[in-house]
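Q&A log
Question type: sequence-to-structure
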Amino acid sequence: MRLTILGGGGFRVPLVYRALLTEAHRDAAGRCTELVLHDTDAARAGVVASVLAAQAREERHPVPVRVEADLDDALRGADFVFSAIRVGGTEGRVRDERVPLAEGVLGQETVGAGGVLYALRTVPVAMRIAERVRAVAPGAWVINFTNPAGIVTEAMARVLGDRVVGICDSPVGLVRRAARAAGADPAAVRYDYLGLNHLGWLRSLTAAGRDLLPGLLADDAALASFEEGRLFGGPWLRALGSLPNEYLHYYYFRRETLAAVREAPETRGAFLDRQQRAFFAAAGREPERALELWERTRLEREETYMAESREASGGWERDTCDLDGGGYDRVALALMHALAGDTRAELILNVRGGGRVTGLPDDAVVETVCAADADGVRPRWDAVTAPGEAELGLMLQLKAVERATIEAADTGSRRAALRALGLHPLVDSPAVAARILAAQGNCGAG
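Response status: OK
Response body:
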C-alpha cells in the first residue's frame, strides 16, 4: 500500500512515520509498503527525510521513503493521501495573527479572523490538489490534516465527495483525558460528540451502560486533573452540562484570551516560525543530529500549545495527561487501517452531515462520531443527540462563515470574504472586517 504525504516537509511528518514503524502497523494487511513525501520546499523535505532515515536506522523492516517533487508523480499509484500542507508557511501564519490583533480582535490560525484569512489562502490550493487526485489517483482516500480542517475538508469534498475525510486530534484527546479523569479506560468508553472542527462538545461519556459525565462535571478535583477542566472551570462546565473542545475557550472567554494574547511577548505563530527556522537550519547543517534536534523541538512545541488560553485561566504547565491526547498520527493510522479493511474503527471525524443537523445543508461538513471500515466512513447518528439551542446557534453562525470563506476563496469574491469575516462571532464589526481584509489582501475584488 502506498501512502503519499502532501506537505511532506512538515514538522509533524516524523510522527506519522514513527506510527508506520510500529509492530501493529507492520503486521496489518493494509500496511504501508512505500511512503512518498511531496513538498514545494525541497530543503524542508530533505531535512524531514533525514529525520525519517534516522528513525528507520534501528528497524529491521523500515518503510521505504521517496521524496517526489512533482505533484502528479507523488499522487500516481497512491492508495492513501495525507494532505498536511501549509500555504504561505509559518510566515503566513504570523501575518494571519498580527493583522487581526492590530485591530483588537483575536488572531489564530483556525479560529476567528486568522482562521478565515488562512482558509482564503489555502482553499484554492486544496481544491487544485483535489482535482489532481481525482485525475491521477481516483481510487485514493484523502485524509485531510490541513487547517482549518473543517473548511478545507468541505472544499475538497466538492471535488472528491466522500473520499476525503478530515481529522483532528483535539476531540479524541478530550475523550481520552475526560475518561481517565472519570476513572475509566479510554479504550472502553462510548461517547456523544458533535460540532464543527474546533467547535464541538462532548455530551456523554458512557462506560458499562452508565453515563460518567454528570459525575465528572460535579467533581471539581477530577475536573482540575485535566486540561479542559482547568481551562473552563467547574462552574461554567456545570452550567453548560457538557465538555467543550478546548478551542471553544476562544469563544467563551474571548476577553480574557485576547488580553493574554496581546500581553504575550510573541504570538504562537511567531514562536513556531522562530522555532522551526532554527530547527530546519540546524538539522540542515547537521543531518546526523536531525532526529535528536527534532525530538527536542517537538517537546517544546507540545509543552507551549495553547499557552495563551492557559494563561487566561490562571496559568499552568501542561502535564503528561494533557500531552497525551489522541495524536494526528494515531487518528490517521486508525482511519487508514479501517478503510483498508483491517478493522472497524469508531472515530471523531470531519465528514458531510447529510442534512442531519437542523439548518445545515446536506453537503456541510460536521465533526462527529463516525464508523469507519472497508465500506467507507459513516456518521453514527444513532449514537449522537441533537445539539442544544446554544450549540446549534454557534454551529449555524460558524458554518455561514465557513461557506462564505469557501465561496470567496473559490470565486475571488471580495463581498463573500467580507461576509465571512464580518459574520464571525470573534470579529466585532464589519468595519474591522473590512480593514483586516484590506490589510491582508487575500482576495481580488468581486
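Response note: The radius of gyration is 21 Å.
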